[in-house]
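1st attempt posting a full record on here, be nice pls
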Amino acid sequence: MTTPIAAPVWFITGAAAGFGRAFAEYALAQGYRVVATARTPRKLAALEAHAAALGATDRLLVFPLDVTQPEAAPPAVAAAVARFGRLDVVVNNAGYGIVGAVEETPEAELRAQFETNFFGAVAVTRAALPTLRAQRAGAIVNISSMGGQLSFAGFGAYSASKFALEGLSEALAAELAPFGVTVLIVEPGAFRTDFAAEGTLRHMPEHPAYAPVVGDTRRFARGMHATQAGDPMKAARAIDRALAAPDTPLRLQLGDEAVDGVRAHAERLLADLAQWEAVARDTLLAPGGATPDGAM
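the predicted structure (as tokens):
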């Protein structure tokens, strides 16, 4: 008689709305076990009601977690393991965006952006790693953005936090491969979430000098809410498929905007590399270590 395989455990940050809520609902619908965390636990009541309607209350654990408080991550992970015995997929989803030119963005706002989008994900990841390494199995899913590969005027702070997350994730993937732990960086385009909702997307004070270059970005951001074409539930399904594949990619773009934008950006990078390759390579020390003018 074979022992039944236990349903995988998904640990999700920022599960009260948007992508996080969709990931939790998707995982519950698949029969998975879910640890849904949020800074304000009462905002998870709707998810609890959804689980009850599915008859899945035994497969859902809700737990308070403010990712900007590093000391809060270990107790949340410990609660998950105590309830379900393991972790399979850790989804670092909690995050928000800022719109504003770099000069328009106060240092405190820039640091707060990193505290959530970057350091928050790091804290949860570090808390989960001992369990994942001991299991020699599992996955870290870091929700980045197409803005983690390229940026636009007005999105410098947001992209900087996502670029940092992607750099760390790429190193982490190499570090965890010997332990059988996968890292997946997800780069969505515009999806129907609350990312651009009033009170969620933070708009920095406007400086008139930047109106010609950041104005279009501000107008786009203010009109984006509830118009995005991407379906968060389909994003969850795509992530699950990528994790189940024998060749899980390091990066997964989601949506036409992300695929087209990242491809065009990569092509520009390669074109610049080719155009300036000779100059780039002509920077080595002369034979013997002397510089062209003979100085050592």
